[in-house]
Design goal:
Two copies of one chain form a homodimer. Chain A is an alpha/beta fold. Chain A has two domains: 261 residues, TIM Barrel; 96 residues, no CATH class. Chain A has an eight-stranded parallel sheet with strand order 4-14-13-12-11-10-6-5. A three-stranded antiparallel sheet of chain A has the order 1-2-3. In chain A, helix 14 runs antiparallel to helix 15. The longest helix of chain A is centred in the last third of the chain and has 27 residues. The interface between A and B is large, with 36 and 36 residues.
């Protein structure tokens, strides 16, 4: 994996991550394919939407169907029929957010499966083995996701553990697989700095900010991103994990972040909340019942080219599978197009202008009439 | 609408139904798009699968979103983005099978919506108005679906009502819309004959057999089909409503039936039961966990070209939407291909041979190893 910084616009960066499976233009949005599928989509559709990289979840695939199953049938790319780059997270966040029990020791984490309650023990070495078996192009180190709120003492202990585990992951690094470190430190600037410095010394292929958007006020999250990002090496990609509200994306890009992932476009789609050039729409609203127009007249996606709001509302109210497909297609198109325009803006030195134009749209809840 | 009988092989018939929206080769299978979508599919996929006609449900669309909504946004074809022929049923069967209450009078049927319990009153005239608003290419008369078991007395009264309603439907017939009569009569041959004769006298564009596969033994169903079908006019299409088990299809085609509809391929797909050239497979079986091979090596569908049984099992176990898509795609391809080969067999006078070859496959539950 190679990162090339093409240009900057203040702190905002335009770049490219070159992998053997293709180039990722940054700032990049990584659609989430938790269970080896982006929910409701097929991989050809993801290609058409312009997705250049997918994220898949180590925790979920370890539990079901098992990384050894996927390895045996030829790896994750072949399994899910996606030949572009894949980034796998390390499971640290899922153990933290999904497991009904977790017990952390220096060695690793004991947790219960959210699927069947079975007991599991994840270590940095096992997490690297899993990501190797999956055959991800970019792997993440196993980290402890520091909760919010956490005392300074806890956050320090937690970041030290993450540093130790990062070392062990580096020792267990797989060939032909990039590995990113994850900066922790809670909402304590000096701890974020300490974490960043310890990881930078280990020389990872890229650096992520973890443990954000876990309950802290948004201003605190922004403060951490703005403080920590400039501490990271200029020549490595920077990834803000799990964040994808587009207002947050604009803030983070302005701080120099290059990569994002989030279930927001896909999950919202399934719940009937759709992003448009005039604001968010809840497709179930009565006002759309007989609306013959497209969801978003400014959108060129399959959904907007072919269907009326009346049909989309009917599909949603009838809980039809096609509703999830059409809505997901549209929201992903909106995200992909947003990132394309974001990159164009940086390229031509208009990032701040783009941000100013987009902010009111992103804040708006759109109603007809 | 015009029907052209091309050739026969004993009683089995090869034909074509010409409509302004395209030709339907018979024997034809009509995939079911209850709520204005074939569940999990988009219309482009239906085209690629070779579907030449879809069936949609008057009862469902009347209740939600309402036929007036669909009319206002340009009719059912435009609404669901399907430009091929559409047949709508009359709601008679759904009122019978889905409504928690129905009260039949000469005038019509009072029933409660299965969606919200609201009271509705359907008459032959209203049913024709609904099908006109939807803009179906082929409409069905409003009938009373005679239950099983029913006394001879009840079945006679029921068939007389259906005849009366058929007359009223004919009087309310929509322009540019074919209308089929529905033969009732329960499991009484003489009543089936009486119903057929009364309807034939009214000169419908086609004739359906209704009230079958409603609980009666299969032999009795076969007996009714074999007895009644030859009573129908040679120059009109014959449609066996709601039946689509392929063994039943073979029996009915041998009696001279031309059209079928059934949720079997789509519903089974969503439940993980898949049709293959070696028999039915339940994709959730443990034996497929690490199976790298295609679902059906003899199938050329998107699913079989791209995915392993291991992946299909994983999608199913994870309840992913893609599971329903890939499974539905495959089962519909199996049905479409089956009907193509069935027509070829009739065309070349090999129908009985085809039936003999297919019967053991259709009866088989396929296990690996």
């Amino acid at each position: 994996m190679q990162f090339k910084l093409i240009t900057t616009d203040n702190h905002a960066r335009l770049g490219q991550i070159h992998t053997t499976r293709g180039t990722i233009n940054t700032p990049a949005f990584m659609p989430v394919g938790t269970n080896a599928t982006v929910k409701a989509m097929d991989p050809d559709e993801m290609k058409e939407l312009g997705a250049e990289v997918l994220l898949s979840n180590t925790y979920h695939l370890y539990l079901r169907p098992g990384h050894e199953v996927i390895k045996e049938v030829g790896g994750l790319h072949r399994f899910m029929k996606w030949d572009g780059p894949i980034l796998t997270d390390s499971g640290g966040f899922q153990v933290f957010s999904l497991s009904p029990l977790r017990k952390i020791s220096d060695e690793g984490v004991t947790f219960r499966s959210h699927l069947d309650g079975s007991l599991h023990f994840l270590t940095p070495e096992l997490v690297m083995e899993i990501q190797g078996a999956l055959g991800a192009d970019i792997a993440m180190v196993f980290d402890e996701c520091t909760p919010y709120p956490a005392t300074r003492e806890y956050a320090l202990k937690s970041l030290k553990l993450t540093t130790e585990w990062a070392k062990r992951c580096l020792e267990a690094k797989n060939e032909n697989q990039a590995l990113f470190g994850i900066v922790q430190g809670g909402v304590y600037k000096d701890l974020r700095k300490q974490s960043a410095e310890e990881l930078i010394e280990m020389d990872f292929d890229g650096y992520a900010l973890g443990g954000l958007s876990v309950g802290e006020p948004k201003e605190l999250m922004y403060e951490m991103v703005n403080y920590t990002t400039p501490l990271l090496p200029v020549d490595r990609p920077r990834y803000l994990m799990g964040i994808g509200d587009l207002l947050d994306v604009l803030e983070a890009v302005s701080a120099g972040i290059d990569m994002f992932d989030c279930v927001m476009p896909t999950r919202n789609a399934r719940n009937g909340t759709l992003f448009t050039s005039r604001g968010r729409i809840s497709i179930k609203r009565e006002e759309f019942k007989k609306d013959p127009g497209p969801l978003d007249p400014d959108c060129s996606c399959y959904t907007c080219r072919n269907y009326s709001r009346a049909y989309l509302r009917h599909m949603f109210m009838s809980r039809e599978i096609l509703s999830m497909r059409l809505n997901t297609m549209h929201n992903l198109q909106f995200y992909m197009e947003f990132f394309r325009r974001l990159r164009e803006a940086i390229s031509s030195g208009r990032f701040e202008q783009f941000r100013k134009e987009q902010t009111p749209v992103l804040k708006n809840n759109f109603h007809e009439g």
